[in-house]
Amino acid sequence: MLISHRHRFIFLKTQKTAGTAIEIALRAVLGPDDVITPISRADERLSRQLGRPGPRHFRAPLRDYQIAELLQLLTRGRLKKRFYNHIPAARVQALLPMAIWQDYLKISVERNPFDKAISSYYWRTRKQRQPIPIDQYLQRCPTSEISNWPIYSINDAVITDVMLRHEQLADDLATLATRLSLSQPLELPQQRPKGQIRRDRRPWQEVLDSASQERIRQVCAREIAAFYA
Asked: Which of 2, 123, 131, 133 could serve as a FRET partner for 197 with CA atoms 20 to 30 Å apart?
């Protein structure tokens, strides 16, 4: 996730929606006081190659540590994170001053839930030599691996001011750059993070059986109603 005090926005990063690529694009306009949470080592390397700033201001101050966390810090050097990847909106709201939460533009990104579920399957099983079939995975996996709803909603209501759409990302980022009064376009990296993981590029209607489609409709009913009805 990102918090820009310079441009007064909060980016709530969802899963399997090109969120890392969007973060790398947005890092180009962030200042020294802004919050940047870490991404994977490979993605951080790509970000550095593009001249983007690295993680900063995401760790918790010592006053936020519990006794057990202080012991872990002293014995293992484990630092506590205040902000982190895919943090839910309710948690961000609780951590920020109310003036910032209310005044800053809240941004997130969503994707067709059926395509997103296929992408999740390939990501979650990428290290398995013989992954289970996708229909079995989608019947067994936790709802959090299919739905992003808690990341951009509070009390079951969407709280974002701008919802980017994966299917029209370039146009939406151009509109966002104008809304933020940026002096430069928001450019996605040509090398898309995690973009080569999904191997089956067929339309989702050809990949998913009826039972898988039905589970996605049930789990993602709120996203579908809000953005894809």
From this structure: 2
Q: How many CB atoms lie within 10 A of CB 152?
A: 23
* Strand extents, DSSP E, the chain: 2-4, 9-11, 35-36, 105-110, 153-154, 157-158, 162-165
- Burial class of residue 199 (count of CB atoms within 10 Å of its CB; 0-12, 13-18, 19+): exposed
The pair phi, psi for residue 15, each rounded to 5°, is -100, 140
What is the spatial distance between Cα 56 and Cα 37, in angstroms, rounded to a whole number? 7
Question: Can you list the domains of the chain with their CATH numbers?
Answer: 2-227 (3.40.50)
Contact in structure between 145 and 220 (CB atoms under 8 Å): no
- Residue 80: Cβ within 10 Å count: 15
Q: Whole-angstrom Cα distance, residue 191 to residue 82?
A: 29
Which one, of 4, 34, 12, 181, lies nearest residue 106 by Cα? 12
Sequence-distant (≥ 6) Cβ neighbours of residue 155 within 8 angstroms: none
Query: CB of 35 within 8 A of CB of 3?
Result: yes
What is the per-residue pLDDT across 64-119, written as a single tens digit (0 to 9) for each? 778 888 878 788 777 878 899 999 999 999 999 999 999 999 999 999 999 999 99
**pTM to 2 decimal places:** 0.92
Q: For residue range 37-68, what is the model confidence (pLDDT) as tens digits?
A: 999 999 999 999 999 999 999 988 777 778 88
Q: Is residue 157 classed as helix, strand or coil in its secondary structure?
A: strand
